[in-house]
Amino acid sequence: MSMAAPSSLLKVEEIQGRGRGMVASQPLKAGQIVLRDSPILLYSALPLVRQSLSSSSSSASTSCFCDHCFRILSPSLQGDSSSSTVLCPNCRHHCFCNSNCLSNALNSSHSSWVCQALSHLRANSLLLEQPLEHQVQVNFLVAAYNLANISPSDFQIMLSLQGSPDDSTIAAAQFLHPLISSLCSLALIGPQNGFSLELTSAILAKDKLNAFGIMQPFSEHDDQRSVRAYGIYPYASFFNHDCLPNACRFDYVDANPSDDSHNTDFIIRMIHDVPQGREICLSYFPVNEKYSSRQKRLIEDYGFTCNCDRCNVESNWSDNDSVEDNAEEEEEVMDEDQCETMAASDTDDHPHEDNNDFPHAYFFLKYMCDRTNCWGTLAPLPPQGDTPCNVMECNVCGKLKSDNTFDIDEGQDEVSMED
Ligand SMILES: C[S@@+](CC[C@H](N)C(=O)[O-])C[C@H]1O[C@@H](n2cnc3c(N)ncnc32)[C@H](O)[C@@H]1O
């Protein structure tokens, strides 16, 4: 199934050795929003079995976000009669931020089939003994087969994404498919509609390569942010990976007003200018990861070996070298003007060839958030017409920072939204 171009700014093209990718249809500016994408499917990253809100006299529930829109629910409000939080009237297990979200959920993500399917699965002792990964995969499979019922065209879009089953996906499908099959009597899905072990393997493979994590809010005290939900985003799935990305993803799951049903939309913004025809890439994980761990993740999770400029340089580093240490050393020898020049030269075809063994230092100094444990990527706020914005936003912690990267003392470079 082919999809229309996502916007006038981007087109989907075949790229040798990388499958499809997103390419700039015109010159793109730093901070420019090149894509807004809504998920066709969202599912909880929490294990299937959680303490029910209704069964708890204390506020010990682990459910801390809405099961439909995945906004954070204030723990103090859970169980509070003045709260707008509501439980599903049927299972009394799933929690929604307000009656509007509940009513949307009952017609979509928490249809009566999903409600019954998850209730049956929660009672399945075989599943409860399984590792967390299988319990989360069950959430995905129930959401995916629900999608097949409520929006067959979106289900087909998901099937058209990249990903073929590998040994681990097939093994997971062999365990999970019979469990889901036992729910078929509850559903419209059945063998007559193509429901099979092969289809279960195929959609698990799509999920593995394409699901994006919607993360818990950033905390300086926790360098391992957990995932609250996963989503399949049909256009964002076409971005290939680069260890020096030229665009990054922002989400504002909790920030949008509670009556806005687009709170889980992704916004992809340019980190710096790029010329027409250049491939637009995201980094699939925080940019500070070391060469060896990046290579491991990319081969294990995504099935490819990265040959980007940065990997070619860092393959010669010792395993103890980190971009943070090297960037600090570089900062001492590089002034602001040099950094600006190097960032601007990203529009060249052969950037930075004249530099030493860390030609990408400018990227970490200019575009990596320096807040403790954050490792987010900074992109400018959108330009106003042709005027670039000199305020950078971190896509993890949300910190705003003026784009005067150097010679500014710690703390003095932060700006507020009003600036
Ligand atoms: C989310 S998909 C990206 C879109 C995909 N290329 C397609 O054709 O739909 C992730 C997959 O794209 C491919 N890919 C992404 N970045 C790549 C890169 N830098 N080099 C080679 N393949 C890459 C890998 O096969 C990876 O599993």
Automatic annotation (TrEMBL):
This is SET domain-containing protein. Residues 8-285 form the SET domain. CDD domains: SET_SMYD. InterPro entries: ASHR2-like, SET_dom, SET_dom_sf. SMART domains: SET. PANTHER family: HISTONE-LYSINE N-METHYLTRANSFERASE ASHR2 (PTHR47420).
